[in-house]
Amino acid sequence: MAIGYRIDEKQIAIDPQTVMQSLRTKYFTNNRHHQITRELDRLLQPDQQGGRLPAPELHAGGLEARGLMVVAKPGDGKTTAVHRVLSRHPALQAATEQDVPRYIRIQVPSPATLKSLGRAILGELGMNDVSERAPAWDIWRVVKHRLSLLGIVVLWIDEAQDVFLSRSAREIDDMLKTLKSLMQGDQAVVLVLSGTDRLLEVARYDQQVDRRFRKIMSRPLVVGHHEQNLQGLIDTYCQMAGIRPDIEPDTLRRLIHGSRGLFGRAIETILAAIEQALCEESYCLKRSHFAEAWSIQEGCSWDQNVFEINDWAALEIDSDAEEFDAERTRRQHQQVGRG
Fold first, then answer.
1. CATH class for the region spanning 33-217
2. CATH architecture of the domain formed by 222-314
C-alpha cells in the first residue's frame, strides 16, 4: 500500500518498500572501515605517487605475501565492510570493461573440505567443470595458476571459520598449510579471511600462519559512549525516509543492548523500525516502532522485549546460543588435542 508523507511541505505518495530499498543502499563508514582500508594498503605495493599497485607487498626476501583477518561476531556487518573496501579500492578495480576485478570473494561451501573449497574458488574463476574425483593437490595447483593468470591480487574467503568447523587436527593442519601456500612464491596473493572469533582460535594452532596475518577485531557499541553516533544514523535515515525521529536517549541505550553491541544488528533494527513506521503511515519514528520491529525480528514475547520492559539492562539475550557455542568450542579443542 502506498502511503503519503510530507517532504518540504508537499504531500507525495511512495511505497514503503521503495523507500526501504533506498535506505538499505546507504553505507556508513566507521572506524573498522578505515582500519580495513589502512591494513589493506599495507599489504599492497606502493606506487611512486603514494597510491597502491595491484600487487602484493612481499616479505621474507620477496618470497611471500601477508594476509588480513577481519573478526567479529555474527551480525556485526563485517562482510558488508570488507566488500565495500575491496569493491572501491582503486588498485583492485578491473583495468577495462572486459577484465575482471583484481579480487574475488568466496563463500565457504558446505561441507567445507580442501577439495570443495578449491572447487568453489575455481568456480568463481570460471572453471565449473572440475571433476569431483580430482585430487586436492591438483585442484589447488590449478587454483594458484588460475589466480595468477587472471591477475587476482586478493582472495577473500568469507565466513572462513566454517572451513575449520568440526575438523580433525590433521585436517585443520592441511587446510592451514594450503592457505599459507597461496601467499608464497611468484604467484602469491593477499589472503583476506573474515569470520567469527573461532577463526582466531584456529589460526593460533599454527604460529607460522598466525604471524602472516594482520588482524582487525570489531569494537562493540557501548552504552554511555555510542548513543550520539546512533542518533546521527537515525537522523540521516529518517531524513531519507521523510519522517521525523522522536527518539529519547533511553531508546538508544535499549537499542545498543538489544543489538548485542553489534553495529550491523543496530542498523538492521533501525531499518526495521523505520519500515514499521512507514507501514503504519506514521510521520514520526518512535520507540513503539522499535518495540514492534524487535518483537518480530527476535520472535520474543512482550515481557522479553528490550524496548518494552523496565529492567531492560538485566535482559539476557542469546544465552542458549552462547552455551551451545561454548560447548562446540570445547569439543573442537578436545578433537585437536587442546582440551
1. alpha beta
2. Orthogonal Bundle (1.10)
Among 33-47, 288-302, 323-337, the minimum mean pLDDT is found in: 323-337
Interval 125-174: pLDDT, tens: 999 888 888 999 999 999 999 999 999 999 999 999 998 876 778 888 89
User: What number is the average pLDDT over the span 241-247?
Assistant: 95
**Rounded-to-integer distance, Cα 299 and Cα 97, Å:** 46
Domain residue spans of the chain: 33-217, 222-314
Torsion on CA atoms 266, 73, 229, 307, rounded to nearest 10: 40
